């Protein structure tokens, strides 16, 4: 990556997500709140079904940001959860440059969720800051 | 709702976690990170951006009990990661965390309690490589 701002992010689609994806994330990430894998528990809590971990969506978006901006350039990554991700949802990840200065860029990130027969919903709003070596600085 | 304002400043016992190679690959797979570096069995794998979540596997048990959250009413609010250095497989991280804020507010889903926890991750060379601020929401009883 050069000193200039990154090119626009290519939109990435991930999914449809399944209950198995949620279980895999629970095991990988260590969050065993039954609301994410136990249908009986989730329904008793008033939800139509289990739903994905916020950190699963955040993790998928983190990979997207790292591949767009360069993992080693990332200095900050922020997520705010807006709505739940349900089994069958496909995540649509997008990003845009908000501010760019020599050697630094700030981007906005969005995750929408699509499912058959439903309007796309915003499920997560995020942002990130990345830094790049400035030419002439001698660093590489 | 349970009044948790007295918990602000509560410091959790610190604990130490090894960044395991297999755990890094497993996590990358779970978050569908398609960076080819994670297909490399022998490489010195970098931790994915939200890998810090994994440390909750080794959280001392008493930790969960301090807040006494009702899991039926818990939602993740958000998180902010600040990257100060690299984390790669083989590193040994010491995790220090404290409760930074507890607040009550009323949103579209009714009254809720927000708890903000700040974590600091220090590697085996005493370098602070990551700071994480995360918010958990407990909705009011229905």
TrEMBL record, chain A:
<feature type="domain" description="MaoC-like">
    <location>
        <begin position="16"/>
        <end position="101"/>
    </location>
</feature>
<dbReference type="InterPro" id="IPR002539">
    <property type="entry name" value="MaoC-like_dom"/>
</dbReference>
<comment type="similarity">
    <text>Belongs to the enoyl-CoA hydratase/isomerase family.</text>
</comment>
<dbReference type="InterPro" id="IPR029069">
    <property type="entry name" value="HotDog_dom_sf"/>
</dbReference>
<keyword id="KW-0472">Membrane</keyword>
<protein>
    <submittedName>
        <fullName>MaoC-like dehydratase</fullName>
    </submittedName>
</protein>
<feature type="transmembrane region" description="Helical">
    <location>
        <begin position="50"/>
        <end position="70"/>
    </location>
</feature>
<keyword id="KW-0812">Transmembrane</keyword>
<keyword id="KW-1133">Transmembrane helix</keyword>
<dbReference type="Pfam" id="PF01575">
    <property type="entry name" value="MaoC_dehydratas"/>
</dbReference>
TrEMBL record, chain B:
<feature type="domain" description="FAS1-like dehydratase">
    <location>
        <begin position="7"/>
        <end position="130"/>
    </location>
</feature>
<protein>
    <recommendedName>
        <fullName>FAS1-like dehydratase domain-containing protein</fullName>
    </recommendedName>
</protein>
<dbReference type="InterPro" id="IPR039569">
    <property type="entry name" value="FAS1-like_DH_region"/>
</dbReference>
<dbReference type="Pfam" id="PF13452">
    <property type="entry name" value="FAS1_DH_region"/>
</dbReference>
<dbReference type="InterPro" id="IPR029069">
    <property type="entry name" value="HotDog_dom_sf"/>
</dbReference>
């Amino acid at each position: 990556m050069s000193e200039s701002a990154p090119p626009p992010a290519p939109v990435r689609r991930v999914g449809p997500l399944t209950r198995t994806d949620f279980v895999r994330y629970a095991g990988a990430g260590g969050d065993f709140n039954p609301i994410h894998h136990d249908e009986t528990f989730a329904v008793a809590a008033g939800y139509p079904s289990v739903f994905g971990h916020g950190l699963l969506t955040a993790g998928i978006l983190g990979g997207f940001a790292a591949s767009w901006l360069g993992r080693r350039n990332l200095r900050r990554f922020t997520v705010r959860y807006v709505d739940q991700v349900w089994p069958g949802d496909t995540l649509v990840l997008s990003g845009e440059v908000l501010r760019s200065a020599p050697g630094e860029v700030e981007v906005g990130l969005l995750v929408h969720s699509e499912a058959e027969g439903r309007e796309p919903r915003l499920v997560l709003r995020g942002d990130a800051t990345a830094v790049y070596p400035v030419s002439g600085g001698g660093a590489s | 709702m349970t009044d948790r304002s007295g918990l602000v400043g509560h410091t959790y016992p610190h604990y130490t976690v090894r960044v395991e190679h297999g755990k890094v690959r497993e996590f990358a797979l779970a978050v569908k990170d398609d960076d080819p570096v994670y297909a490399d069995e022998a490489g010195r794998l970098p931790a994915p951006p939200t890998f810090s979540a994994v440390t909750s596997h080794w959280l001392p048990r008493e930790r969960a009990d301090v807040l006494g959250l009702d899991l039926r009413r818990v939602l993740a609010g958000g998180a902010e990661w600040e990257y100060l250095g690299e984390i790669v497989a083989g590193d040994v991280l010491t995790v220090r965390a404290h409760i930074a804020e507890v607040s009550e507010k009323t949103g579209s889903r009714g009254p809720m309690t927000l708890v903000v926890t700040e974590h600091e991750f220090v590697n085996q060379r005493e370098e602070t490589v990551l700071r994480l601020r995360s918010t958990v929401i407990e909705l009011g009883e229905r």
